[in-house]
């Protein structure tokens, strides 16, 4: 059973409650508004993922947002499986991939064209829209072998990842949903001099009333046409109040470690009372292994093994975690 903590006006300092801290997704419920959601601050885990690849700053910021979205979505899964976020676009950053394997493993990487990125930077035209260009955002839920994947596709034509995520919920889930994302590189003092650390945060809230008459949202599109041509937010006062409250969030509040998830939720919802559940940890953990890669190579033909051999060996690097696996081609000779 989930640990619960009731945050009310009588506990403005949250002194008697623990904090989930970095790299924990914190579910919450605001019963008077019929709102449920999750919030997270990513710290050391995100810094490790971005640091091992040494991405240029604009690319790192994009991938950080993808990581926040992925953990907010992935930790909602109620079964053993995987949530995958992937973009395919014609921009300088033509691919972002982040996947979350239950209960806690996140991995991510980005693919980009250094020359196009440099040209964009020199022209002073760096933005999410110019980095991504046109293409699609695919959100996939995979429940494992012998099950059918569920995939939602959203067009990325001049939209940010945050805007595309809202479009996904309007078209695919048809649940009134809003979210906020923030990414920053913090500079902290250290013995060897200042140190830069990546941080990111996000909050996702959904309108989930129990009564049928409040659940009816006639303006939500079923997926036909351009959803941006319609008004999608329900007129229910509770949902409109929620949108107004989320509009007061400062980007720094989502990533500031001195605020934290619980204090932010108190700031937003103390007038209504907010129920905060135990944090769900997320970890920088790749699913690659020597055994998995060996299994793939064992399926190669003799010619493919030969073509894969360089300097007397086969060298395979994981795109996610950058771990390199080295094999002797002779290991696969008997299988040919």
From TrEMBL:
GO molecular function ontology, one term from the record: unfolded protein binding
Keyword Zinc (UniProt): yes
Keywords: Chaperone, Cytoplasm, Disulfide bond, Redox-active center, Zinc
Positions in coiled-coil regions: none
GO BP, one annotated term: protein refolding
SUPFAM superfamilies assigned: Hsp33 domain, HSP33 redox switch-like
Pfam families cross-referenced by the UniProt entry: HSP33
Signal sequence extent: none
Alphabetized InterPro entries for the sequence: Heat_shock_Hsp33, Heat_shock_Hsp33_C, Heat_shock_Hsp33_N, Hsp33_helix_hairpin_bin_dom_sf
Domain of life: Bacteria
Any single Gene Ontology cellular-component annotation: cytoplasm
Keyword Chaperone tagged: yes
Full protein name: Hsp33-like chaperonin
Source species of the chain: Mesorhizobium amorphae CCNWGS0123
